[in-house]
């Protein structure tokens, strides 16, 4: 099966001279969750923004379902739903008003929107928060609302930048039930960034480890653990830490090109 997203040799240097992506190539498989991992500043958000058309790379290609889609195009907006790392809500509008507003952005009819909002409220367990103005929502609930907003138009591809930051264990479990349901029941594809390795181990079929703007590893978490520790059973977190230490060490030695 062709990948949902293919990235070829992507470069991005910001105006201040910071090179955030340095020739990144990667593939995101369809109908599963792919997690992008990596240290702070590795280029994860730059990658996500490039896929969504919110940031223009200097070089390279982003193909979504084999098509090169122009930033801001209607095709792109229909195909993907996005919740970024610093998304904002209108503090005076309620959660329900945000959902209605989002449905109007996608020109959904009142009846379709009504039905979809009911589904999303159920999926993300937002029932008791609907009438609260956004300023009164807790951090975890805001993040669930962002995901519900991203899914309103039934995109095939959901892209989330650190969606579970600040979620308590119960909210996190509700969140993952919704995401796993999107993948299994609606044949959705999810690309997300996270620093929580235990949730990657449990919910992501694939991982992409970014270091210094390039891909250090792509594959399934089980293979990565075996690759890093062939003779022992280690957690994904320990395997990740070993990888990062080895990477830093080889940079210091000048051995990694
Ligand atoms: N708008 C910008 N202007 C200049 N430099 C930027 C900008 N956005 C990001 N950077 C720099 O680009 C590099 C990659 O940043 P990016 O936000 O993509 O990393 P990240 O992996 O998402 O980090 P984090 O885990 O902290 O979210 C960093 O060095 C960052 O400081
Ligand atoms: Mg980031």
UniProtKB/TrEMBL annotation:
Alphabetical keyword list: ATP-binding, Nodulation, Nucleotide-binding, Transport
Domain ABC transporter stretches: 5-237
Entry GO MF terms: ATP binding; ATP hydrolysis activity
UniProt keyword ATP-binding present: yes
One matching Pfam family: ABC_tran
Domain of life (superkingdom): Bacteria
InterPro entries: AAA+_ATPase, ABC_transporter-like_ATP-bd, ABC_transporter_ATP-binding, P-loop_NTPase
PANTHER family: ABC TRANSPORTER ATP-BINDING PROTEIN (PTHR42711), ABC TRANSPORTER ATP-BINDING PROTEIN NATA (PTHR42711:SF5)
Family note: Belongs to the ABC transporter superfamily.
Protein name: ABC-type multidrug transport system, ATPase component
